[in-house]
Design brief:
Helix 5 links the parallel strand 4 and strand 5. It is built from seven helices and six strands; from the N terminus they run ββαααβαβαβαβα.
Amino acid sequence: MKIEVKTLAAKDAGAIDLDDAVFGIEEVRSDLLQRVVKWQLAARQQGTHKTLGRSEINRTKKRFGRQKGGGTARHGARSAPQFVGGGKAHGPRVRSHAHELPKKVRALGLRHALSAKLGTKSLVIIDDAALDAPQTKALRTSFESLGISNALVISGAEVNENFAKAARNLPCIDVLPAQGLNVYDVLRRDTLVLTKAAVEQIHARLSAKEA
C-alpha cells in the first residue's frame, strides 16, 4: 500500500510503499500485544523487593517461658513469624521477573502494533528527522504543523543529534533509532512517526521473517 510522505514543514514529499505483511494486518490481536508488552515490562522489573525471613532475624533462639503452666505453646524462638519483630513467612525474595517469549511472537507482535497505528490513521511518514540546530521551538512548530503532540519518532540507523536534543525538551515526544523500535513504546504514544530510512530498516527486519 502507498502512504504519503511529509517533510518536517508539513509539505508533500512524495509517497512510499508499505509492506502489507508488516503494516497491513487487518485483525489486530490485542492478546498478542498484551503478551509482548508484559514480556517487555517484566524484563524491566528490578526484582529487588526483599523481606527478612525467620533465619535472618537476629533474636534469641533460646526457648522462653516455662515448660508447664504458662498457658501457651512452648516456643523455641522469638524470630518466629507470629511474634512482633519476627521473620516474614513466605515473603518476597530478590529475583528476576524476566521470562522467555519466542522471537516469532515478538516479531508478530511488532507487526500487529505497526498495523494498529496505520489502521487508526496514527502513522506519519516523514522524509527525514534532522535539524540544522538543536532548537526546540522550531521542532515544536514543525510538530504542530503536522498535527503531532504525543508521538514516538523512529529515525534511521542513528538519531540526528540536533533533532534528539530539540525533542528531549518536548513532553510526550520520544525519539529512538530504528533498531530500538518496540511494541511498548509504539503503543504508549498516540502517534507513530517513521522516517523513510526507518521504514526501509523495518521492512528489512520484519518482511523476511515468517509470521
